[in-house]
Every structure is written in structure tokens, then in C-alpha cells.
């Protein structure tokens, strides 16, 4: 009878997985179940799920970190603070103190790379707080409702921590490595690290340390600027009249996964023939901290083959769709920061607060539409091009309702999945929270 029930459950699991995947969504297997949860695809950034608490425990079980979210929004004029709760085991600590550090790191190569004494890694920001023994009353350290609920649930051995971002830090972004690249890629990364030690400056044991990668993200502003439009006029030798080209977009800001329509107007009053028109969406990633390197990659390109004879005109709209799925194998594409098993996307456009030096932003990302006209000639062809700048970002997600905040908390193990060829955090002495710590939750 038990065997038949197991067969039935397995059959149902396979059936639902096939049905879910065939309906165009993403199927995610739960940790302790064979049931699939359907998650429809959308163009919104994969923000932390509501009412899910992410936890991670160090190997010696002395310190565990609990956070209500991993994504913190930069609104240009202000940034969401980083908050969470540390759960300690007094017996495992053996009199050691507990500290929490928030850091922002710019990485321009592998950790083992060193050229003339220069390491390809730089700490842009680091702040450390002592959470145990507490330096103030525990209730005074509570800044959010999630923290208050976690303290009630985890008991007297839980202590809150809280950080505020400075307004001059970049957002999470990474350069896509090639397939053969090994180690951590060029990236701007944010990390929460909790550890136990005799003092803040004492040597820290890996077994007593837990690290959690978080993201600093930006959303499209509520107000948009004027729809961009660029035009140019080109004169040719032995041609009495010029060539006039105009390109425009419908709006300044586009969302990830949204089709970009490019309106092109060509008035060819010259004696030259336009043999072809090429339209592309170019990503410009500037590594401004070390070398001011600039990477220009066409993330969507179409060669339409349209021609405009001498004395003729053309009015046409071209559609382009820039997606990471079409650029998976290309090295040097800038991506939004990646967490856990979630997929990422092309990096969003960088918006910098007025007065902040761009040199400290690590990696700056911008986008432009490039229109190239191939002009025929007697000996060889020439190009007439123009560039239309725009922003590619995520839409602002809906605000969480008060009733949803009061729902039951769901604990989920916090474990980052790196890109191909990268080492997991567990190699640095971190383990996901298991049954040992779960038994202490009230």
C-alpha cells in the first residue's frame, strides 16, 4: 500500500511538472517536497519574495544570520537600509563576541592575481557593528517590523543589526565571463558578513564566519524625460545636395524585455545611393575605477537590407529586443548582480546622484540605439551613423500591503549560485541553515 502511494505521488509530481513547464512559466522544486510551485514569467526584477526570511549558519553553529530581503533599492536621493537579525549560540561562542560587517567590493580580476604588488580587488566601503554582547538595549536596535517579528520568533539569543548605505556607492553589476574563465568575474558586489571573534581586529576563523551576498538595485524613476531624437546632415563631394537622417524613440526609459521601436527618417537629396541600413542596441560599460576601460557591445542588432536611391526618401520603424538570452556566450556583457539560483539580465542603466564622482562608481552602464547607413561610392562604401541614448531599467514593483506583512514568515536557506567555474561560499566556511538551528526557532 505504501509503495503504491509513493508511485502515485511520483506520477502526480511528474505530471504537474510537465504541465507547468508547458505553460510558459518556471517550475521550482521545494526543499522538502516533490510539489512544484508555478512562477509565471515577467519582466520585473526577481526581488526577494514577500514574507520569506533568508537564513545562513556558520559551520561551528555559533552564528546564524536571518534577513527579510536580499535586494535593497537605490532611489538616487536615498537608499534602503540593510537590516537583519543574528542568532547566536552562547555555548558555541565560548565567550567570543559577534560582529556584522557590510562591505562593497570592486573586483577587477581573480583574488590570486597580483601584478607588481597591485591586487585586483578594492574595498569601496566597509562598516562593522558589534551585535553581541549588545552595546545598547535590544529593542532600541529594532528598525523594521520584520526584525521585530524575527526577534519574537527566534527568542532571547537573537539580536538585530542595521546599516545605512552612503549615497556614493555603485549598484550591483558584473561583467559576463567567457566559458573558459575560472574564478570570480569583474564585478561590484555587496556582502553581509557575520563572525565571532575575541575582538573586531582578531583573526577570524572560517568556521565561525557566515557570508551573504546582497544586491543594491535601481528602478526606473516615476517621471521620464523627453523622448530622445537625433538627426544629422551629411554633405558629399560632387553632390550639390546633402543626405539628412533622423532617428527617434517613443520614450526615454524602456523596461527589460520590452521591444524598442526606432523611427528612422531618411531624406536622400544627394547623388549617392544608400545600400543598407543597420540598426543596433549597444551597451556601453565603462570600468571607471582602475583603467577607464570602455566595453561597447551590440546586444541586439538587425541588418534590414533597406536601400534608398539618390533623390528618394524613407520613413520606417524598426523593432529591436535586447535580451541576455541572445548574448549568453559573449564575454564582457554587463549584467545585473546575481543571487542564489535566480537568473539575471542585462545590466540596468546607471543613474548617479548629482555631485557624486563617477570615478568611484566601479562600473557605469549606459545604452544607445545606433543607426548606420551604408553609402555606396565609386571606389568604396562609407558610413553615416547617429546614436540615440536611452535608459534600460526595471519597473518599480508594487508596494507591499500592510496585511501581507503580517502573514506567516517562511524560512529559506540562503545560498548563492555562482556563474560557471566559480566556487561556492561553502568553501569559505559557510553552510546553509539546517535542522540544528531550525530546532532553536520558537
UniProtKB/TrEMBL annotation:
GO function terms (MF aspect): G protein-coupled receptor binding
InterPro entries from the UniProt entry: Arrestin (IPR000698), Arrestin-like_N (IPR011021), Arrestin_C-like (IPR011022), Arrestin_CS (IPR017864)
Signal peptide per UniProt: 1-27
GO biological process per UniProt: G protein-coupled receptor internalization; signal transduction
Arrestin C-terminal-like domain segment(s): 239-397
Taxonomy, superkingdom: Eukaryota
Positions of region (Disordered): 423-442
Keywords assigned by UniProt, alphabetized: Signal
One cellular component (GO) term of this entry: photoreceptor inner segment
Pfam families noted in UniProt: Arrestin_C, Arrestin_N
Similarity comment: Belongs to the arrestin family.
Protein name stated in the entry: S-arrestin
Organism: Solea senegalensis
